[in-house]
Hints:
Layout: E1 3-5, E2 7-9, H1 12-19, E3 27-28, E4 41-43, E5 48-52, E6 55-58, E7 63-72, E8 81-86, E9 93-94, E10 99-101, E11 104-109, E12 118-126, E13 133-142, H2 145-153, E14 159-164, H3 168-172, H4 176-192, E15 198-203, H5 214-228, E16 235-237, H6 245-251, H7 254-257, E17 263-266, E18 273-279, E19 282-288, H8 295-306, E20 315-319, H9 330-340, E21 346-351, E22 357-363, E23 369-375, E24 388-393, E25 402-408, E26 424-426, E27 433-435, H10 439-442, E28 474-476, E29 492-498, E30 511-514, E31 523-529, E32 546-553, E33 559-568, E34 588-595, E35 602-610, E36 622-632, E37 640-641, E38 660-661, E39 668-669, H11 682-693, E40 701-705, E41 711-714, E42 723-728
Parallel strand pairs: 2-6, 14-15, 15-16, 19-20, 20-21, 21-23
Antiparallel strand pairs: 1-13, 3-11, 4-13, 5-7, 6-7, 7-12, 8-11, 8-13, 9-12, 10-11, 14-24, 17-18, 18-19, 22-23, 24-25, 25-26, 25-27, 28-42, 29-31, 30-41, 31-40, 32-37, 32-42, 33-36, 33-40, 34-35, 38-39
Amino acid sequence: MKVSLNRKFAAAALALALCGSAHLAIYATDSFAGIITPTQLNNYSAQVATTTGSMVYNRATRLYTGKLTITNNGPAINGTIVVLLNNLTSGVSQTNASGNINGAPYTLVNGGLAAGATITVPVSFSNPANARITFTPTVNQLINGTVNAQAVRALTTPFTIAAIPDTQVYTEETDPAVRDGFKKQVEWVLANAASKNIAFVAHLGDVVDNGIDNNQWINANTALSSLLSQSAVPFSIVRGNHDEPTFFLNNIQPAVTQAKPWFIEAAPGNLSQAQVFRVEGACFLHIGFQKDPTQAELDWANALLAKPELHGLPVIVSTHDYIDGSGQSSTGRFIWNGFVKNNPMVFMVLNGHTHTEYAVVNHDSANRPVYQMLSDYQDRSNAGNGLMRLITIDPAAAEKQIQVKTFSPWYNKGAGAVGGFTNYFETDADSQFNYNVNIKERVAFDTTFDFGAEPPAPPLPALNAIPASVHYSHIFQNRRPLAGTTTPYDGTVDVQINENNATLNYGGEATLTTDMDDNLSRVHAMLRFDDIVGTGPGQIPPGSTIKSATIVFSATSSTKGKVKMHRMLVPWGEQSTWMDFTPNPVSWTSMTYLNTDTGIYRYITLPSVMVGGGIDADDTEAASLVDMEFSMPKPVPTPFILGVGYGTNNLAGITYQAPAWDPNTGAAIPKPALEYLSQNTAGLKATIQKWVNGEAPNYGWYFEPTSSDGWDFETAEGKQPPALVIEVEGAPLVQ
């Protein structure tokens, strides 16, 4: 129905009397305007009759005022009514609108509309050209918490959330068949959205590997273009630590993502955003946080969930870093404590970043379960083999109402593909699992359901055997018995410190990183094995001669750069932070370094770093002498053993971007020579000998980064902790 309003000029007093009519008391202004989307509306226009009164021109305000009369000829419409004025005359604006949806103004009316009832809604317009005012009204029900609770309990159809984790390695690949793994993920989702009822797509961050490499962003956009250009399937793409913020926003443009009909709102800076999606008659809210969201972004999200238009909708969160291989990371704990725990409608969190799979259920402050899942396959063959996550919610199932599967539409570069896709499923216990939960009650705003006690965290797996090629008389690895005993060792201490979160403690992380450029800031890692020297069972007797020594790591990421190990000279612990190694008050400067990443290999300037920040290998905080230097190729060796010649600093398949210019001399630096790293363990042996001789205290090692391609390893709390293995002269070999 298109309405045309006649203009009638009358006294200002008459207009004011009209606006003050008792019939208009249920009209509600909305201080949170602009966050209602078409997805959140049930259109009831077919069962209501809408009539309009004559317009009155108010000479004092220069506005046209009038009213809409709405009569409900059908069943009651509960909740909040949204009266939307579509196709409003060009140049005319509704001045008392609560907000607008895709440019069409709307008015909120609280209290619903009973069967047979009539309400009157005031309207006022600015009309500078005195044009004929026409519009097409629709009367809608807002799907808020109370309405949505009824809708989720009525759900019958399974629906799926598709999660695409870290795609960075695809974008740097030179082999088109490998690079296609990312594109095939997107193509499969869109091709199967209807048949699989894929309701939402979440990219979990690290779109590219080198966040300032235009070629990688071109590759990423080739894969993402079909997703970005459509609006039928709601999606989110969050920023990871490899995605430089400016380049991210230039390529995942807010002008595109925020123009979607299901877009809700963005936090200041546009790096965290909210979307809404619909399943049958129910609405779900999605919050996408960038890597390391700020307190301001958590405050934004908390305020968003408190808005009346969104309050009570079930919420899924996706972000880059949240849980790692054994539980919530430091960033995850920050998000949990600052947002998830105190918002009982948040029922699921998805993340990537840590190169493994893990899942854990925690109960929030209202004792409701939150399903938290990590997936990241970037260190698998072929850049991740096209692996992604499909989380299916089946509201009608008697059990297994949340079904998690790991799937690839492009496994082994599409070998055996049918119809363009491989349809491969990975079915081990970490990759395919289910949750039994009353999902309808879990996502209902007004539930009183008792979800019971929080389930225990998944047990850590058994320790892997030390490879037979490694000979030792003594071994120090958390959870593994000391040599010749049944007493598990528990003396491994490790931590990372992060310039970007200088006061944040990372103790207890399941993986640690050392990185020269993590979102334009440095990350340093330290590792120590306490109580290795002594007279107790399994310890190394003081004064012993060390014949050989190495460390066995479960590395979770490769690196194309070099990592240098230095003996620490000062005490530290798992509670240490960046500021413990930084002069106070803090001052800032720029820093230029040679990035040893062989895909970059040039001098890079970090524009703003802390003077004296972090650990310096200056013979004060850490020894300048390098105990060990290593690099690591893809695929990641399992395990990674110092002393074995993995890779080079000129890895195959990486294009050297020559020349690199020395900023001091202006001379070109030649392409690095072929150099096998991680073979010489003499420095490790010498340091341990100092500890055994009592010549130096054991403060462990500092892992110095030299590239923007960070290296990650599992910690004492991880699935496979680091193992220090030592052969002592004259001691019987365990292996």
